[in-house]
């Protein structure tokens, strides 16, 4: 139940006592540990009620006028069952989905640490949001209606789970859909993304095109650049051809690989990143390069959690079994005001 997030500061003690006596859990999960990078990025490791650990990251950016944009990168699962080859989260295994209030409280924890309002939220932390879509949507509603973060200031990321992009489109959110692509063709994508065989590239691109037509919101394609794997000029040209084939409304966000332990992947040189970007721009593809933040704070998803809890506690799912998305017919509850 949702009686957990705002009570520490906004609910009178007498009312909190009444709620506790009625069987509600009042209060928030504690911060187990934190790491601060030289650039101001702070990663929090949050200890949940069942002692599992999840990460959330606060990323502050000050513009030329001195105003601060504070982005919270939130997790949607404890670990991740998809195990993409370059991702630290998958290496730590999968335990369970997060509840909506456990997602929302990550944003509140970031606000407390920075003593500032979160302006942007990205569902790009630990886990696959589309495998926990019901709770992600409930958290999204709470963040929008109760925490008062605009829908256009939120991004929901996915590596691609069959049938879920269509379901998300039906909600007609004004938030951005970010598709973790990482390769311009199916063969290479299967090498990088272990779940790619279940959701062929052609099917993903069709669903992204339909998403754009349904919502009028452009799709952002996340493309992690891995040195010598997917970062040469031919890959950039092939990516441009793929996007032009499926129509307008797309944006590419290039992400230079954030090094993690236990992988052979390497970060490309700046020249290779620049050439890849220029090749896309020459093909009239809108592109940006994500500024790497928090390299000295284990900022890649899953790194910090793996230091403290390398193997999740007892899992609700057997090894290798992915949790299924919520059934299409199930009614989604409205987020409670006190989430």
TrEMBL record:
GO CC entries: cytoplasm
Start and end residues of each Radical SAM core domain: 66-296
CDD domains in UniProt: Radical_SAM (cd01335)
Keywords noted in UniProt: 4Fe-4S, Cytoplasm, Disulfide bond, Iron, Iron-sulfur, Metal-binding, Methyltransferase, rRNA processing, S-adenosyl-L-methionine, Transferase
Cofactors (names): [4Fe-4S] cluster
SMART domains: Elp3
GO biological process terms, semicolon-separated: rRNA base methylation; tRNA methylation
Gene3D superfamilies given in the database record: Aldolase class I
Transmembrane region(s): none
Principal cellular location given in the protein's record: cytoplasm
Subcellular location as annotated: Cytoplasm
GO molecular function: 4 iron, 4 sulfur cluster binding; metal ion binding; RNA methyltransferase activity
Residue segments, region Disordered: 315-339
Name the UniProt record assigns to this protein: Radical SAM core domain-containing protein
Annotated source species: Mikania micrantha
């Amino acid at each position: 139940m949702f009686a957990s997030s705002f009570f520490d500061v906004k609910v009178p003690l007498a009312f909190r006592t009444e709620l506790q006596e009625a069987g509600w859990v009042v209060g928030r999960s504690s911060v187990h540990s934190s790491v601060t990078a030289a650039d101001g990025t702070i990663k929090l490791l949050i200890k949940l009620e069942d002692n599992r650990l999840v990460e959330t990251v606060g990323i502050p950016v000050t513009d030329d006028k001195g105003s601060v944009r504070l982005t919270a990168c939130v997790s949607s699962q404890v670990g991740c069952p998809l195990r993409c080859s370059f991702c630290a989260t998958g290496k730590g295994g999968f335990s369970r989905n997060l509840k909506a209030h456990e997602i929302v409280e990550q944003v509140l924890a970031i606000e407390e640490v920075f003593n500032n309002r979160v302006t942007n939220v990205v569902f790009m932390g630990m886990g696959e949001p589309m495998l926990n879509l019901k709770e992600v949507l409930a958290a999204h509603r709470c963040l929008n209606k109760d925490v008062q973060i605009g829908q256009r200031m939120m991004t929901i990321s996915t590596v691609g789970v069959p049938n879920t992009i269509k379901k998300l489109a039906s909600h007609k959110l004004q938030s951005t859909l970010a598709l973790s692509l990482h390769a311009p063709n199916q063969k290479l994508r299967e090498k990088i993304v272990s779940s790619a065989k279940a959701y062929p590239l052609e099917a993903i691109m069709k669903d992204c095109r339909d998403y754009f037509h349904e919502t009028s919101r452009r799709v952002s394609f996340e493309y992690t650049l891995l040195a010598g794997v997917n970062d040469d000029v031919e890959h950039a040209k092939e990516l441009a051809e793929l996007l032009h084939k499926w129509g307008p409304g797309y944006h590419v966000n290039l992400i230079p690989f954030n090094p993690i332990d236990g992988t052979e992947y390497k970060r490309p040189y700046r020249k290779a990143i620049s050439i890849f970007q220029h090749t896309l721009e020459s093909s009239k593809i809108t592109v940006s390069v994500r500024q790497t933040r928090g390299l000295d704070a284990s900022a890649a998803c899953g790194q910090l959690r793996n230091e403290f809890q390398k193997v999740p506690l007892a899992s609700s799912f057997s090894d290798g079994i992915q949790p299924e998305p919520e059934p299409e017919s199930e009614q989604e509850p409205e987020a409670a005001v006190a989430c």
